[in-house]
């Protein structure tokens, strides 16, 4: 009788830990969202649609990323993965940025991309990628992609976190109210260049 009882306990406890669908009505914490009640979970929580349809291309970057992070895809909560599709018009690019909470794996499915990252020792690693090629960008390191082909390029991206975060270098410096004098000091740029970039990216100060 005791072995059967233990087996029942093991089955019920493993079932309870199958998943933790995000309750998006609450706050996101460093460990993720709280779990939605299982009675409220549906198959839709584990499905996301529309990634294969390009969104609006940024006029500045000529690129259109479509993310499947936990905020758009609640079933990812706690699973350590997320994804994105990125569309790059000819000449389009994703500027230098980092993902503080996740490693990125890029697979090129259409077109040609120049992609790379910069190590913490300031060594650049970059390569021209064609259809079927892949490149990994280690967590937290600055990286970029540029469409160097003549047609739209497409990349399918995977992350090692349901919410990898993103910080784009240029907006971080020039799209806020950090005083120009401070920006000039920490970037070696002159006042005219800083003011020009702040105006371009919506910053003040």
From TrEMBL:
Residues 58-195 form the Cupin type-1 domain. Disulfide bonds join 20-35. It holds the Pfam family Cupin_1. Residues 1-16 form the signal peptide. It is found in: Secreted, Extracellular space, Apoplast. GO terms for cellular component: apoplast. It comes from the Eukaryota. Keywords: Apoplast, Disulfide bond, Manganese, Metal-binding, Secreted, Signal. The keyword Chaperone does not apply. Oxalate binds at residues 99, 104. SUPFAM superfamilies: RmlC-like cupins (SSF51182). One of its GO terms (molecular function) is manganese ion binding. Mn(2+) binds at residues 97, 99, 104, 143. PROSITE patterns: GERMIN (PS00725). PANTHER family: GERMIN-LIKE PROTEIN SUBFAMILY 3 MEMBER 3. Belongs to the germin family. This is Germin-like protein. It comes from Phoenix dactylifera (Date palm). The gene is LOC103704906.
